[in-house]
Amino acid sequence: MSNILTDTHIDVENIRKEFQVLHQEVNGKPLVYFDNAATNQKPQRVIDALVHYYQNDNANIHRGAHTLADRATAKFEETRKAVQAFIGANEAEEIIFTKGTSESINLVASSWGRKFLNEGDEVLISTMEHHSNIVPWQMICKERGATLKVMPINEAGEIILEEVEKLLSEKTKMVAVNHASNTLGTINPIEKLAKMAHAVGAKILVDGAQSTSHLEVNVKDLNVDFFASSAHKMYGPTGLGFLYGKRGILEKMPPYQGGGEMIKDVSFTETTYNDIPYKFEAGTPSIADVIAFKQAIDFINELGKENIAAYEQELLAYGTAQLMQIDRVRIIGTAKEKVSVISFEVEGIHHFDLGMWLDAKGIAVRTGHHCTQPLMDHYCIEGTTRASFAVYNTKSEIDTFVVALKDIITKF
Ligand code: C6P
Questions:
Q1: CATH number of 5-39+305-407
Q2: Contact status, residue 296 vs residue 43, Cβ threshold 8 Å
Q3: Which residue has the CA at smallest separation from atom 21 of ligand 1?
Q4: Which atom of ligand 1 is nearest to the CA of 232?
Q5: Is the CB of 100 under 6 A from ligand 1?
Q6: pTM (whole model) above 0.90
Q7: CA-based nearest residue to 387, from 335, 327, 322, 336
């Protein structure tokens, strides 16, 4: 156990020592990084693992009959086991490495959808989905003659379960929903939704891009059929993610892409496919990133999800209370259960301008529709300014942000 934890509390100053990137000035001001929902920063151990791999172990995996290849393969597969344990999956073979949440969802929509969706079937998503959990379903529904239906939300940004009940029927084949919304912060009641989906014989896919570094995730307790996430939102490398799927379902699905690694035997007339997970991992993967991802998982595990969640909830409550007191500020997304995301509008100031002025003061936030355009339409807005916190953020950074915001608001 490292010294970045004291009892049940997060020692944020010690944690920040692992993140060199945070210790810089931007536009002459100390950086305040509040764009963690887009991607969070990487601890030194992740960066070191990338360098170490290329300096010492670089080799292609699963193919080689030499020491470096064996070493790289062993480390690569260690990460698969770490992901399995991290999300409570039954077996490491149920974890498929992908480019990220988007590719994981595309894999399911394309492979599962082509096999199991037919004319007249329905796929149910929610109003607050990221485009990555809308467009792949739209594409496959169009191709298969299925219909995409949408679960409504209330003003606070919570799914209305009574309405979901009405939308579900024996026609529903898939419920695809995020665990936590990247724009509103809402934490969705996945266990309940899984029960409701299964009661009509549908499968459930959970987009966990915004939950895995903030919330306890156990795919068995949640009883979900698929779970997707991205390493770069878990203090790990970009361009990497994973898909969890129940073995019984993955085995029935056809391959997503053809190529090396995903085959058993190939002739010009016929190909037999590899077992899971390799059936879904065509071509040389991002080996260094997968190996370094294990360090990111270790980082989260050392801190403990419960401690991270408790600390981030403190930041969320502190930031929300401060913002609510500022004139002309309206928070979008006021669900009872939220991850550490605050989206807001300022009357009379366009979010793009606000983002630019905050950047001039060294504060990084995201502005725009956050890849949730239908959600913006629901609130009749074009976009928001979004501050999202990670475990290395502090109350004093929130103070800096609030002072900057007030200063901008009084000027415009
Ligand atoms: N959201 C944000 O700023 P990828 O790009 O595949 O790693 O993740 C896509 C994705 C899917 N679902 C949710 C809920 C997400 O938040 C994201 C990524 C970033 O909110 C970039 S748009």
A1: 3.90.1150.10
A2: yes
A3: 38
A4: 7
A5: yes
A6: yes
A7: 322
